[in-house]
Amino acid sequence: MLHASVNHSGTEFWSPTRLALLTLLGASFLHLGLNVANLAGAGIGLFLALYLHSWALLWLGLAGVLVSVFYTAPPLRLVHRGLGEMAVGVGFGPIMVLGAYYVQAHRFTWEAFYVSLPVAILISLVLYLNEIPDRAGDAAAGKRKLPVRWSKDRVIAVYAAAVVVAYALIAGGASLRSARRAHDDRAGHDPGGREGGQGPPAELRKPVRADAHHGRQHQAPRVHGTAAVRRLPHRHRRRPPVEPPTGVPPVAAPGVRHHRPPTTSRG
User: Is 96 within 8 Å of 44 (Cβ atoms)?
Assistant: First the structure.
């Protein structure tokens, strides 16, 4: 909707859906939908910032709103200055990923920022590719996008290099994560990232109880029923008591005398 409402320089490469939006709905209706979408997104972000009492989330959301507005709005008009691809990458990459991570984890991390970089590059390449067929129309409309500014060979070379960088970041992040886990295992660190072998926080530790029969300790399961029994080792499973057959006297344990009530003889 955003791309169709702000780009009126039609070319022969336009899709039927895009032409139908402009023909049936009109540019004014698309602009109205764009404003409604921006206000709805800003309202959701403001609610989350107030709910979490976070100034950081508020400023992050404000940055996203500014990128969305000044993508085409004066005085910046980022798309006309060859910065549209970068603006889209920042909005869909660090701003969106870091915002989603903060809402769930209540903090920012360098790992989350690193994860946002391949997302930023790949979503920028989607816009970058869509701009290539519109080079002539964008140049006539005064939109100095990157494919308009660069030659054909340079456009292809930049695309190939960006794809390599994006997937190298993905592979590098996975390799670093695996190496970190292996280092933590060798050093006796907790896999969750707590150093010094401290293990998980106290509130996440399971209660430990001693087994009455074997004198060993094991973690008491939190789930009741058969699911909890299956989680225990076989030697710790409590066997159900065996009832003796009817009419058979109980057998006393070794070393324990079984006292029977005295019997009276008849006769």
Answer: no
Residues 6+ apart with CB under 8 A from 101: 108, 109, 112
- Residues listed for the chain: 267
Tokens encoding 36: 């409604």
- What are phi and psi for residue 153, nearest 5 degrees? -65, -40
Q: Does the structure show a pLDDT above 70 at 70?
A: yes
- E strand intervals along the chain: 208-210, 217-219
Do 45 and 61 form a contact (C-beta atoms < 8 A)? yes
Q: How far apart are CA 256 and CA 233, in angstroms?
A: 31
Quick one: what percent of the chain has pLDDT higher than 90?
A: 38
- The residue extents of the domains of the chain are 2-187
Nearest 5°: phi and psi at 218? -150, 165
User: Alpha-carbon torsion 206, 210, 212, 215, what sign?
Assistant: positive
Q: Which helix or strand (DSSP H or E) is residue 48 part of?
A: helix 27-52
Angle between helices 55-69 and 96-105 (to 10 degrees): 160
Residue 24 is encoded by which pair of tokens? 């049936």
Distance CA 43, CA 102 (A): 17
Quote the pTM value. Answer: 0.61
Which of 125-134, 141-150, 196-205, 245-254 is the least confident region? Answer: 196-205
* Main-chain dihedrals φ then ψ at residue 226, nearest 5 degrees: -65, -30
Write the pLDDT tens digit of every residue in 50-61.
999 999 999 999
